[in-house]
Predict the structure of Stage II sporulation protein D.
Amino acid sequence: MLPVVGLSERREAVKPPTSDDNACEIFIEVEGQKEKIPLETYITGVVAAEMPVSFKKEALKAQAIAARTYALKTTNYGKTAIAPTVARQVFYDEEQRKANWASNFLGNEKKIVEAINETKGQVLLYNNELITAMFHSTSNGKTESAYGYSGNNVPYLQSVASVSDQASPKFTAEQEWTLAQWNKLWPVQWQASDFNRVQLFYNDSGRVDRLQLGNNVWTGREVRTILGIPSTDFTINYNNTTRKVHVKTQGYGHGVGMSQYGAEAMANEGKTAAEILHYYYQDIEIKKIDACLK
């Protein structure tokens, strides 16, 4: 009789990210996790959480390099903890990946681990310093500049065209509220007539810089937070017949840095991870870190 192969034995087909097994290995402290996690294992969990596993390997590799850079920059090479949330980077541990992927776990894990191993240690640098490697799901057809997002000009975070994002399932969205529901969200009370005099001011990337209603002014980012909408590229309309407020958005996320769906489109065109990264982050270098120097 052939021996029964258990899950633990079958899993040998999925080799974890490789390690040099030296004292210089970097560990990442993830809030909510009991123990610190080896850097490349952590990046496996980030890529699994942040990008669809169905994407091309070159897109996954680009995501791995961006996520590794972001993690090291944010944690100062593992010296401080990082939250596993959209405010930082989402992270799925192995248990979560098994639950999400079920019977597809082995194949999906293998694909992502290969992308991690093929980019092991690679990070993005500008003037020999780690960049803030911001990324987002889907742009509105153009990425947002760091200046447009925060008012701070960052040389490697400029606005670039990303028109292929329009094919993303997350490109457009519509939400509606009754006027009563709408007013529960705002610190001021709107009247139906206010929607005829509200003003939206857009920046160069087509996103709302500010919304003005009389003497009240909110930034596009503040409006996005108040309404819980996908992006700051939005329009607001009030339907007098249904008495409902309609908000339509384009894009998903803050729009700064690499567009994930844009990366997938470039990968489908045959572009490499390096080409994707050099497109979305200007004048950067891709180098392998030496953890022993940290």
In short: The longest strand covers residues 172-178.
